[in-house]
Amino acid sequence: MLKFKHLFDNPALAEMICRNWISTEDEAKTVKLFRISSNAIYTFQKDGKKIFCRFSNTEEKNADQTFAEIEYIKYLNLKGLKTAEPVLSSNGRLIETLNTPWGEYVACSFGEAEGVRLDKAELTDDVVFKYGKKLGEMHRYSADYKPCGIFRKDYTQILTWIEETLNKHDDNAKAISELGDVRSKLGELPRNERNFGLIHYDYELDNVFFDSGSETLKIIDFDDSMYMWYVTDIEQALDNLREEAGAGCFESYKAKFIAGYESEYKIDREIYENRALIFRFINIYGYSRIKRALSESWVNEPKWMSELRIYLQKALEKKTDFFKL
Known about the structure:
single chain, alpha+beta, six-stranded antiparallel sheet, 46% helix
């Protein structure tokens, strides 16, 4: 997530950035906050359609990685795996790097996904099968994907970022030990073009839309995509299904999800059996992101910020419980 100082709703900044996609004053009046978490996202109306403008300070994100993300999204769309479509700015660019009174920002925009978010939809065996199938299809395309220019980060670069973050913002020796053990054990896993590639890294129900009319799924939010073992997406999706569906339905849904996935792409069983290690990577990465977000504080913080700080501190303690060393 973003550092706390970037979590404030800033309508003036939002309008300044969104105007790179807006062509009329009437459209400018429609700019409104959608959410701010790992990015700031504002919506506006253009030609009768809702557009989502996503931006971050370059302290948080950089243009090269955003370009690599959008290149992958365009590749998936060309293959027929539908995602939220990137929208060109008025300058004909998919990404804008902007100098503002609040610093330098990287921005891009996407069209609205049709249908209902899966976390708001009725889950059935058929829908869960399609949910798994869509992920398998995406990984099948990823296995053949060769970027034209810039690559997204891989897990080793993320591990380096985690180490730098912990050294700067954390004095928890257990976290450093956990990172070292995870890094060592991940380095022992077999890695090849069939089991390792560009993954979504946030393939959860709220990032997939279901259109009941066409019975199709559309994936959004590739902001966290990275090079990692494909099983990572499976682990995160199943963990999210367990939370949303509850213990009573989970085993049935898990079987349907896996069947749907393997109808498109074969799971590497050796990596699948190492899901606990994959989870530890996810956990220490999440822990480090929270540590960074909590690293700054101010006198007289607004109530929402104090409440968020308490919530994240509890989440941090929960993640510490999963450290093995």
